Amino acid sequence: MFGSRRRQETPREPYRTSPDGKPRHQKIVIFDEKARRDEWFGILENCRGHILRELPLVHGMVVLVDEDESGDVESLASKRAGVVRVDDDLDIEMVYELGSLAWGPRTREDIPWGVARIHLEGVDKSGRGVKVAVLDTGVDQTHPDLAGNIKANHTLLSGAISARDDNGHGTHVIGTIAALHNGIGITGVAPKASVYAVKVLDSKGSGKLSTLIEGIGWCLDKGIKVVNMSLSSSKENQTFRDGIQNARRAGMSMVCAAGNEGPTANSVGYPAKYVETIAVTATNKDDGIADFSSRGREVALCAPGVDILSTWPGRKYRRSSGTSMASPHVAGAVALLLEADSSLSPSDIKSILQSSADRLDGASSDEQGAGIINVSAALARVSKKRVLGP
């Protein structure tokens, strides 16, 4: 019989091993939309294993089963009314950055070259009143360049007792989006945005699809309209696709790192590969596409992603490179657009950013998408749209 549906927050998590001593792995059971949420547990009651969590966004549950218990669950899709399918819970990894050593506090404030490059001159928006979520490794919420903007640091890792950033990747991403304009360190693209750090990746930058989907659902419950995902998987399944599509239908703009698998062609990872997201590749200081940046027809835009200075845990700063560093430039820009006009839909936002982007010489569409973002031009299009009306 399946164990309790309550998530146990103990370091040992004994339910990850079956009574026979076999290791368990995660599966996602997707229910028919006609099956009410309070009926899901009953549908699974004759199966062996352990229920880990519910995933309302995709009408599903995450279960833990060993190789023998897996058969009970797999057979549900063909034998039990109310079950649509059973999918693997895929591995998700942060898009690893290529970084230099971190160093300590900075007594002066710099505008990183990437923030300067995306044309913020004359822009009177700062992201005020806009909620931005970062699904990543968490954040150092005590960092003096971030503390004033962090509204939540929430963990969704099973067994985790802390939401702190024990990797650094999330803190770096968030600095580019929303480091404070406070006279020290750096300034982010949207320095007055309200940031929600959602920890879905562990200290090694690893996580699961189910945790990512739960994180997206958590953000929707909080009314968050823009999410940055500097993470990726080389695999997909229908549950992954459904989660992204459902979030887009709910009004969420999802900005995603395209991946660091370049210069190989057709190398964009998921979720960036989905048309419902905004896939971002990385440029260098010479407006060239970084060699490491993934390529593919799914690329929507490019942004600075080489030698990017941003915040790091422990009151530090660090220069890092990767499409992980490019994506937050675009997420910050989305926050500025939403401050200018909160009624903009995800389709509006993607269209405005692409139509106002600057094409780069010598780069193909598979490398740069519509071009490098131009925030000033994008906001001008929003103003024009508001004047002209729908």
Which strand order do you get reading across the main beta sheet?
Answer: 9-11-8-13-15-16-17
The main pleated sheet reads as: 7 strands, parallel
What percentage of residues falls in helices of 4 or more residues?
Answer: 25-40%
Can you write the helix and strand succession as a string? EHEEHHEEEEHEEHEEEHEEHEEEEEHHHH
Q: Please tell me what the overall shape is.
A: globular
Span between N and C termini? 56 Å
Strand content: 15-25%
Task: Please provide a written account of the structure.
This protein has helices spanning 40-43, 70-74, 76-79, 113-117, 169-178, 209-221, 238-249, 323-340, 346-356, 365-368, 375-388; strands spanning 25-31, 50-55, 60-65, 83-88, 91-94, 98-99, 109-110, 131-136, 150-155, 185-186, 194-199, 206-208, 226-229, 231-232, 253-257, 278-283, 301-304, 308-312, 316-321. The protein has 390 residues and is of the alpha/beta class. Residues 4-11 have low confidence and may be disordered.
